[in-house]
Structures are given as structure tokens and as C-alpha cells.
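Quick one: structure for this chain?
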Amino acid sequence: MKSSPSATCFGIVYLIAVSLVTGLMSRGLSSDPLPWDHAWSEGLREEVLAAGFEVVDTSEMRRLVEEGRHLILDARSMQEYDMGQIPGAMPLPIGDFEDHFLGIAPILSPDSPLIAYCSSAECDQALILAERLREAGYPNVKIYLDGWKAWNAEVGP
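Got it. Here's what it folds into:
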């Protein structure tokens, strides 16, 4: 049995309307609803700190880059890395961790000072990378949570 295009459109609009009303009702009945302007980056910052990692801001990151004592690891994809990265950063895309880690592991020691970053404060790839590195025996990892977007905007490529 075929339905007409107008019946299909009506069905879609009806489902959207029911979903919206249900969502608004459940938010209204909740004792602790999420705010409309929830800052996801704050939740990620709390998660990073709860995991025991130090968060580095842009001014601190600039200083650490200039000192050159930390190995900076970019958790973004190779395509994103190729479009721009923090000076001195090495790619270690979390999506291909095993393949890329083999190339970086020989230059690491367990006490190597590392900094992981990804695209922005809404990106959790740096946290995932830091956790993977800690599991692999490299506990000295800091996270530049603001990431490439903040670096590029404040410092430049």
C-alpha cells in the first residue's frame, strides 16, 4: 500500500511535533533539567580533571611550545592535521592510534612530558588519547583542551 507524498510529509511533521511536545513536557517535569544553553566544554573540562589530567590554557600552551620540552600530540584525523597544526605537533589520530603509535613509541620514555590536543573544547579526542597513552604506560600527559581552533584564532598557524 502506497501513501501519497502529502500523507508522508504530514506523518513526518506529526512525529516531529509529538517528539517536541514530549521533550518539553519531560524537561518541565524533571527536577534537574539541562539548561537550554548548556556549556558542553565545561562538562568535558570536569571530565578531564576527574580523570586526573592537567588542563593547559592557550597562554601556557604557547610557553610550552616555545620551551620545546613537551612532545605535542594531535589527536585529530590526518586530514585535519594536514590542514594545520600547532608547531612541533606530531599526529597521533585517535581513530588510527595503533598504527601511528608504533611510529611514535620509539621516541617516548615512560616519563616523557606529553600534551594531547584536538580541535576544540567540545572535542573529547584529546581526553581519549591521553587515557590511551596512560594505559600504554605514559602517565605524564597534559591536555590542551581549547585545541587547534583556539590556537589558530589566538596565535595563528
